[in-house]
Design goal:
The complex is a heterotetramer of chains A (188), B (205), C (102) and D (404). Chain B has 205 residues and is of the alpha+beta class. Chain B has a domain at 47-166: Alpha-Beta Plaits. Chain B is built from six helices and six strands, in the order αβαββαββαβαα. The longest helix of chain B is centred in the C-terminal third of the chain and has 32 residues, at 155-186. Chain C has a single domain, classed as Helix Hairpins. Chain C is 76% helix and 0% strand. Chain D has 404 residues and is mainly alpha-helical. Chain D has one domain. Chain D has 14 helices and two strands. Chain D has a two-stranded antiparallel ribbon with strand order 1-2. In chain D, helix 2 packs parallel to helix 12 (305-326), helix 4 runs antiparallel to helix 6 (150-160) and helix 6 runs antiparallel to helix 7 (164-195). At the A-C interface, helix 1, helix 2, helix 3, helix 4 and helix 5 of A face helix 1, helix 2 and helix 3 of C.
Chain lengths: 188, 205, 102, 404
């Protein structure tokens, strides 16, 4: 089973790093989808089926779609490749990588030497029914709060993405209601 | 309501599905190579030459090789050579009559201009061949078809043509008879004159 | 090295990849993707501790579920921001987003 | 297939597949059983659905032909029965063309991943009383997680082709998925709510038995279930890119959408994936709403359960074809409008309806009639109101040149 873990971990790390250094946004998004699938596989490997499938539905089915849509909507002419090192910011790249390295250097040794209490033997089992009971019982308030957050963020996203002023509107949109226009006579 | 039109549409297609199994008005497809389509009488595509007798189609062609159709043909797909005897005298029938069906545009002008009703439009549409040049160039013997066949494919037109030809022939004969009688009456003692200076438009041989 | 340590190491690596992307890349969408990756690394930690931790509590899994839900909301809002930025400045480079009034 | 022991009290037809599997596994050493049983399940699934795909294409062409008053393919083999294989030979021998500017890797990856993703959902469908490839606690969730990625493949195909029509198709595929994934999932939630489980086998088992001896406990035969079934099938039509929601491959506007730059075997793979996806969603609909492998009447159980499942599945697939033959394609704005203004509200109200239904499970006698009446009203009234609001502001169409 550890072999499966190593394979999934390899998939995650390779695709994630490839996604983050890719010069093509679409490739980044699709590689990151692979990372998310690998993470879902890791959750399944750990025995958290429900979380794994949720991860697949939300990330692969939802977030990736939104990301790809955003990429397509904000696409530049002829998919020119992104710049890896911005012309003004070699310093920024160096600083960013240094900060990352600093965080890694802080975390990894601490993690390796940490005396973690570990369970031996098979992992805990968690049925869907139990998750449902937990969500509807002790965590009900959190569920409601998350629901509110999702609603608010949906409305907020709609507000942000909707055209606000006249010059924001694309030329082809003449401000109609989106209903049948042009090909319809006045009702008699 | 949103569902009514959808259900109506589904009912229409369902009726078609069921009806196609028992209702010949709905199921109108003809399975072509096995079942030949019944062509309408007015259907016409390429020309053919009308011959009088089935046993000798080339000998009884109505065509006199006058070459009017050859001159009129817009895409110039007709090629005619007059048959001549040893002395070079015309025999009033074609030695060569070729129609290149790869060029023919089925305009029917040859039929319109023919004074002898010798060329008519055919109904043969299965003309696919495996060779592009010679196979589509139809010769005299391929083009010659009997008047009976013409009656089969275009009965109305054929009957009208036959009636006209018969009337013309009869008129010509009567005229010839009258002329002969008059000549006989007026110039009895005179020696034999050319009996028939103008040949009737009916086929010579 | 125990499986728990491996999991934590993996999540650290993923977190650092995400962090590097956030700090270095200039495209707003890539920065958002980096943030998503960091969130995912954190989720992996929760699952790892649920699986190998002392046990008795399933809160880790529940927390990951909430985290996924919130991450979805974050992605929606973030990408709406990116689209708004693109509409105003015709670019999605982050250095274009330097004005309070668009 | 799961390694349950073969029960002895059932008819031999019912257990024949299990016995065949055990006989085959008996030929192998014990240590290989776990992998052999998985490989066998995969082989049977791919084989059965591959054959079904082949004949579904033929059935579709025949049905479409009959609906359009023509016979459909009837030349290859007796009554055209060899047509699918002739098509396969043709597809396999065609040249595989990849555009010069295409993203070669994604271009090749898209059809393969699409077929794979369309197939893996079938693993959790209970095809018969004992026939389910993997039993999962969260099987319904697994199914939709597997299905969620299919439009990603369509996007990959459209984007990698470097063709503006394909790219438009990719955008449309994304918009369609975002719009229709929501009602698809929301229409499943009532079933999960009433059955109280995410496991497909348990959902089918909950639909066993008959009320008053003849009325099966299938979910489709309740007001909320019928509504959810209709919503699910509409969303499934959109998810599988079938007419009238086949905007990503709208051949009259986008040439063939994401399929424009595909030929030969890759095109055949896309075609195959469309049918696999359609079959998987139909199989899920059968499982969730039509009682799965349950027979409609008690005495009809002489036929084995998988025959009933196949019959229901084929009926739904025929429905897909019938709908394709009938309805014209929607416009993209009509498509999203239908999803957000009709399907999603209906599905949400239906969720409340199902909650009412499961709360009142104990009612009996005259209260049962009240329960049915309330539930029915909770379907009909929103339907009338929503369908009216969907067309509000649109007068009757007047055509200048067509006779009214």
């Amino acid at each position: 089973m550890s072999l499966a873990f190593l394979a999934l971990a390899l998939v995650c790390v390779v695709t994630a790093s490839a996604a983050m250094i890719s010069r093509n946004l679409i490739h980044s998004a699709l590689l990151l989808v692979l990372t998310w699938i690998g993470l879902a596989g890791l959750y399944l490997w750990a025995g958290a089926d429900f979380v794994g499938f949720s991860q697949a539905i939300v990330y692969v089915g939802g977030v990736s779609m939104v990301v790809l849509f955003a990429v397509l909507l904000t696409r530049r002419q002829r998919d020119e490749p992104l710049v890896l090192i911005p012309e003004a910011g070699v310093g920024r790249v160096v600083a960013g990588l240094a900060a990352t390295f600093w965080v890694a250097a802080l975390l990894v040794p601490a993690m390796v030497v940490a005396p973690l209490v570990q369970r031996a033997g098979p992992g805990p089992t968690l049925t869907v029914k139990r998750i449902g009971e937990l969500l509807a019982g002790p965590h009900l308030v959190a569920v409601l709060v998350v629901g509110v957050i999702l609603t608010v963020s949906l409305i907020g996203a709609l507000y942000l993405a909707a055209p606000v002023t006249a010059e924001d509107q694309p030329e082809w949109d003449n401000g109609g209601t989106g209903r049948d226009r042009g090909n319809q006579e006045e009702p008699s | 309501m949103i569902g009514k039109g959808l259900l109506q549409g589904l009912a229409v297609t369902a009726r078609n599905l069921v009806g196609s199994y028992h209702d010949p008005d709905r199921y109108t497809t003809i399975e072509y190579p096995e079942v030949k389509p019944a062509l309408p009488e007015a259907y016409r595509n390429f020309p053919f030459l009308v011959a009088e007798k089935a046993e000798d189609p080339l000998g009884t062609l109505r065509c006199v090789a006058c070459q009017i159709c050859e001159k009129e043909c817009p895409p110039q797909c007709i090629y005619i050579v007059m048959d001549r005897d040893e002395k070079g005298k015309a025999r009033m029938k074609p030695k060569v009559f070729d129609i290149d069906t790869s060029v023919c545009m089925s305009c029917q002008i040859c039929v319109e201009v023919c004074p002898f009703d010798a060329i008519k439009m055919d109904q043969v549409f299965e003309i696919a061949t495996d060779e592009r040049f010679n196979a589509l160039l139809l010769h005299r013997d391929q083009l010659a078809k009997t008047n009976t066949y013409f009656h089969q494919i275009h009965p109305t037109e054929a009957a009208e043509v036959d009636a006209r030809l018969a009337a013309e022939k009869k008129a010509a004969e009567e005229k010839a008879k009258a002329a002969a009688a008059a000549k006989a009456a007026s110039a009895k003692p005179a020696p034999a004159a050319p009996a028939n200076p103008t040949p009737p438009p009916a086929p010579a041989p | 090295m125990s499986p728990l340590h491996l999991c934590l190491l993996l999540s650290t690596v993923l977190f650092c990849i995400g962090l590097a992307a956030v700090l270095v890349r200039t495209s707003a969408i890539l920065v958002l993707l980096g943030v998503e990756l960091m969130l995912n690394a954190a989720n992996l930690n929760f699952i790892a501790f649920w699986r190998y931790g002392p046990g008795g509590d399933d809160t880790g899994v529940i927390f990951v579920l909430f985290s996924i839900a919130v991450a979805a909301a974050e992605a929606a809002v973030g990408l709406a921001l990116v689209i708004a930025l693109h509409r105003h400045r015709r670019t999605i480079a982050l250095k274009a987003a330097n004005q309070l009034r668009g | 297939m799961t390694t349950t022991s073969v029960p002895s009290s059932e008819s031999w037809l019912e257990v024949a597949p299990l016995q065949a599997r055990d006989a085959l596994l008996g030929l192998l050493p014990e240590s290989l059983h776990w992998i052999a049983s998985s490989v066998l399940a995969i082989a049977v699934l791919v084989g059965a659905f591959g054959l079904m795909f082949a004949y579904l294409t033929l059935a579709e062409r025949k049905l479409l032909g009959r609906i359009q008053n023509r016979p459909g393919p009837n030349r290859t083999g007796w009554a055209g029965l060899l047509q699918p294989f002739a098509d396969a030979v043709k597809a396999l021998t065609k040249e595989d063309i990849v555009p010069r500017d295409a993203d070669k890797v994604l271009h090749a990856l898209a059809p393969v991943s699409l077929v794979a993703l369309s197939l893996i959902g079938l693993a959790v469908i209970p095809f018969g009383r004992h026939l389910v490839a993997i039993e999962l606690d969260a099987a319904v969730l697994y199914f939709f997680a597997a299905g969620a990625a299919t439009e990603l493949s369509i996007f990959m195909a459209g984007w990698a082709s470097r063709n503006k029509y394909s790219l438009l198709a990719a955008m449309r595929a994304l918009a369609q998925l975002i719009s229709y994934e929501v009602p698809l999932l929301l229409s499943v939630v009532p079933v999960v709510l009433v059955a109280g489980t995410l496991s497909t086998t348990a959902i089918v088992a909950a639909q066993g038995g008959w009320a008053a001896g003849f009325w099966p406990h299938w979910h489709v035969l309740t007001p909320w279930g019928f509504s959810a079934f209709c919503l699910f099938m509409i969303a499934a039509l959109a998810e599988s890119n079938r007419s009238p929601f086949d905007l990503p491959e709208a051949e009259s506007e986008l040439i063939a959408g994401h399929l424009t730059e595909y030929s030969g075997f890759k095109y055949a793979l896309f075609f195959m994936a469309e049918y696999f996806g359609m079959a998987a969603l139909s199989a899920m609909a059968v499982t969730l709403f039509l009682g799965g492998w349950q027979a409609p009447l008690g005495w009809l159980e002489v036929l084995p359960s998988y025959v009933w499942f196949a019959a229901k599945l084929l009926a739904l697939l025929a429905g897909f074809i019938w709908i394709r033959a009938t309805f014209p394609r929607l416009r993209i704005d009509q498509l999203t409008r239908l999803a957000w203004k009709f399907l999603v509200p209906m599905a949400l109200l239906n969720l409340a309806n199902a909650a009412f239904w499961s709360l009142t499970a104990g009612w009996s006698g005259p209260l049962q009639a009240v329960r049915w009446a309330v539930s029915l009203a909770a379907v009909v009234v929103p339907f009338l109101l929503l369908s009216r609001s969907l067309f509000s502001g649109l007068g009757p169409r007047v055509y200048r040149y067509a006779p009214s």
